[in-house]
Amino acid sequence: QxxxxxxxxxxxxxxxxxxxxxxxxYPTRILKAFISFQNHFQAFNxxxxxxxxxxCGTTWLKALTFSTLYRNxxxxxxxxxxxxxxxxxxxxxxxxxxxxxxxxxLQNVCVYQPxxxxxxxxxxxxxxxTKDSGCKIVYICRNPMDMLISFWQFMTKVQDGESLSxxxxxxxxxxxxxxxxxxxxxxxxxxxxxxxNPNKILFxxxxxxxxxxxxxxxxxxxxxxxxxxxxxxxxGVIEKIAKxxxxxxxxxxxxxxxxxxxxxxxxTGFFRKGEVGDWSNYLTPFMIECLxxxxxxxxxxxxxxxxxxxxxxxxxxxx
Length: 319
Ligand code: PAP
Description:
The protein is of the alpha/beta class. It has one domain: Rossmann fold (3-Layer(aba) Sandwich), CATH 3.40.50.300. Helix content is 45%, strand content 11%. Strands 5-6-4-7-8 form a 5-stranded parallel β-sheet, sandwiched between helices. The chain has a 3-stranded antiparallel β-sheet with strand order 1-2-3. Strands 9-10 form a two-stranded antiparallel sheet. A hairpin with a 7-residue loop joins β9 (306-307) and β10 (315-316). α3 (58-69) packs across α12. It starts with a helix and ends with a strand. The structure holds 3'-phosphate-adenosine-5'-diphosphate. Residues 52, 54-60, 146, 150, 153, 245-247, 250, 270-274, 278 line the site of 3'-phosphate-adenosine-5'-diphosphate. InterPro entries: P-loop_NTPase, Sulfotransferase_dom.
């Protein structure tokens, strides 16, 4: 509470205020859990962390990483994804494990080995041991226009029916005010770290995964140290994993149609459209122009580009 009183504060999109800590915005509940995570978590060399900015493909990447990493630890037709949601199988540090407990029993949380966790925390704020150890990080980002619409839809539909106009959400996003934002600082933090250390951080994009899930799954398996064998490729294991983790399949599973995540979010809230380019149904020409300029300005010189649509080669590249 003492710390919070000293931090810059802004009204959140809906619900609680956001506080600016170590360069990013958090509601107090997440901030408290994040600080416990930052201070107490000890990474193992073998740990894998799925890291994302919210609404950029967390649920999907959790399912893909879980199924790829542990594929030889359960019979294929008993994939735990059929009975547990991706967020129950790959648990968030700050949104789950450390939410109500500064010292969660992490050994009993992980049924399979190596340990697999997830986080929305920025690269710069990760606990030191995650950087100093051999622990690996898989990050996924998404074009900011789809992320913005996904986040806005999530906030207005999932959060108690309160209303937030797209204009208001857009204005806050433009100024970096969004839980775990600024978006560009988050993405660029992981992007730069992955450029410097590609064996430690695998940087993926939602749009690329949509376009060709198979080849990215192969890279993911290689990165995780569990490459697909020739036999597995012949048996269609890659296609099977892509299919079980697909939006269409996960959305229709009973387990994802009922109940709620420990954070309070109903499981259905993690599955909406799962498309690239849905932003074009919502953003005004003015918003699009502003966002295009923002993307160019923020990514300038970084080498990072975003694909905005699945239909055109409408790429916003950095200079
Ligand atoms: P989180 O960060 O809050 O956990 P996250 O899973 O990143 O959420 O984002 C949800 C988005 O991923 C939704 O996008 P949309 O609003 O544009 O539809 C959701 O539909 C999409 N999504 C969930 N599962 C999948 C999947 N298996 N394949 C592709 N997209 C998915």
